[in-house]
UniProtKB/TrEMBL annotation:
Keyword flag Cytoplasm: yes
Record flagged with keyword Zinc: no
Species of origin: Liquorilactobacillus ghanensis DSM 18630
Protein name: Putative gluconeogenesis factor
Entries under Pfam families matching the protein: CofD (PF01933)
Purpose: Required for morphogenesis under gluconeogenic growth conditions.
Amino acid sequence: MTLYSNKRSRPQIVVIGGGTGLPVILKAFRRQNADITAVVTVADDGGSSGIIRDYINVVPPGDIRNVLVALSNLPEIYQKIFQYRFNSKDQFFSGHAIGNLIIAALSEMNGDGIFNAVQELSKMMKIDGHIYPVANEPLILHAVFKDGTELAGEAEITAADKTIDHVWVSSAENKQPRAVPEVIDAIMHADQIVLGPGSLFTSILPNLMISNVGQALCQTNAEVVYICNIMTQKGETEHFTDADHVQVLHQHLQKNFIDTVLVNTEPVPRNYLDHQKYDEYLYQVKHDFNGLRSQGCRVISDNFLELRDHGAFHNGSQVVDELMRLTSRPLSWIENEFN
């Protein structure tokens, strides 16, 4: 790893993921002096995204919509309109977010996939940075469970409530998917790459299992930082420690490629969580710092917890403050950490 030497005034940071955790980090990054590129999964097949994907064969727009809003500099009213979801009583539009329909329409208008549509929308929504769908076509997530059975489709995999062994992705034509060149270029020229927070098997790994993305992550000179989840997740990471999360990532790419892990050490108060509302939550992730260090990872542990609405989330501002400190520390400081 060639470590960041503070030559650029705006560090180039690539954040890779999907789901609800990615926008939290991106929104906090928007207030920092950094050149941000968000790389977003295209393997979602649930909810409004899944319905749109099935009807017009477009990349699922939900995660992309949330990222666009997180990085948008438009007035709040326009962001709210973009996020508005039609009432369930509106049979024709039931459950669809306006932003999902706009993304799907632009993709169809362009006729050349989701990538150019998102670049046009980025200009319209005054994005300071870059938003790249990881691929220009919808991808299918596959999982092999510990009992040897297999399933395809993110929603089906999550609903199976079985322990996952490993995952991979394919295109609709069952070809090996490739990331768009802009994604690979961003990874190779980044100062820092951030993975997470987000579902390990269904938000983070679908991006990494695209062969040229995984290869780029193993070859980049950037510091690769993993933000470990606060809670274990039903059907994905039950009883996992923080070291178990990292081990799964390393096993999938067959290399110890993660340099630094951010770990929350603040306890979640008993009886605070609403397990009906957040039914994927199980237990707080346990710590295994020796296990992390044995995989070559530097560990940064702190209170990164934000409690709201009876759920446990990462405090985006505190996480991003730490990430920015990592980019600005002198090379000698980081070298001393490893020696």
